[in-house]
Structure formats: C-alpha cells, structure tokens
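>> received
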Amino acid sequence: MVAKRIIPCLDVKDGQVVKGINFLGLKEVGDAVEMGRKYSEDGADELVYLDISATHEGRRTFVSLVERISSVINIPFTVGGGISSLSDAARLLDAGADKISINSAAIANPELIGEIASHYGSQFVVVAIDAKKLDGRWTATTHGGRVPTDRELFEWAREAQERGAGEILFTSMDHDGTKAGYPCDVYASLCDSLSIPVIASGGAGNIGHIADVLTLGKADAALAASIFHYNEIPIPVLKQELVGRGINVRL
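>> returned
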C-alpha cells in the first residue's frame, strides 16, 4: 500500500509566509526558508510553496527564494504561483523545484499542462484547483479564489488528468483557514473519478480532520498550513497518531 503523505504548505507573499481565512486577512507567520528547513527536519513528506500574490499581481514567482528554500530541504518540493509558460517551469526546475503547480494559467491555457508534461513528464505537473460551492456547483476559481470561472471541479480535474497532470491539488476555498475540517464526501467523489493522486487542502484543524480526509475522503495526501505554522500539531506527533489509527504514513 502506498503511504499517505503529509505536506505543509508555505503560502508566500513578498517573501514571507502568510496565512488567512479563505485567502483573505493575511498575517505574516514566519520566514519561508527557516520554516521549510524545520518541516524537512520534522519529517514532512513533501513541501509546497505557493506564491499566492504572483498571479494576482501579474509577476513571476520569486526564483531566488525557491533556490534558497531548496538548498536547505531534502524532501520533494512543489512550487506554484505565476507560472504561465514552459520557460517559467524550466526556471523553477533549475532553481530546485521537483514539481510545479499551475492553476490560473492552466484554466486560461489548458494546453500548457500537456506542454510541460511532454517536456518534463507528468510527475512534474501538479494542477491546483481552488474551488468553491456556488449555486450548488463546485466551481473552479482563479487568482487566489477571487475570480470564478465556468469550469466545474470534477470535469476540469478529469480534463487536467487527460492532458497530462500527474496530481491534482484541490483546495476547498469554503474551508480554507477555517480549521473546520475537509469536505470528505467531495474528496471521495473526486478521488473515485480520477486515476492520479489527489492532495487535499483547506480546513485542517485537528488530527481527526486529517485522518478523515485520508480515509473517508480517500485523499492520497493531506496539505495543511495553520496547524503546522503555529505548532498546534507537530508533524512527528501527527504521524504517530495516524499510525495508531491504522493509516500508513512514513515515520
């Protein structure tokens, strides 16, 4: 059985790790390089760095910061934010990223998924989907959840898979930062409809929430930010608890 993954997320704005609720009311919580180093040492399975203002502000991800983070960690490193071309992806790979995450650019130009996947391999491409429930429909959004699109979560995830995505990172914008738990029924349906791994993001508040999304929600990985940033649930403690619940994780 493939081990479930625990993934801290560094939401970075202007070089600092920030956190808010539903991507709003952002507060600085620490230095991205030092936090990345700590998570690597604590046993995180992977690290995700999202430059959350890159697309909104119309600039490219801060490559030098990616280089600095990659130099102090020894776990797979996914980078997203403002990636809109093959050359952007190449620049981040050269800077030390193991995978890139594309969201707004993939919706605007779905061919970008296949272009990057054909050049570097599907394992390099994570398609992030920030979705919220609007009029009873899970609607994909762009620009950090600010702009709703005409793409529906499930059909867009299946198309991304068909175009060459190696993973889907689905964030429930309705749950992000609330610490009220993940929408496990939605994750279970999404995982059942795909053949590639799904990373669950948005809503982790306690160990039970993470255990639920990895079992009831069928997610391959749980991504969280606040509970790790404020040391509410240290990663070694979380993993031991998950093992105690019969969930296969790497210790």
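>> The domain at 5-244 is CATH 3.20.20.70 (TIM Barrel).
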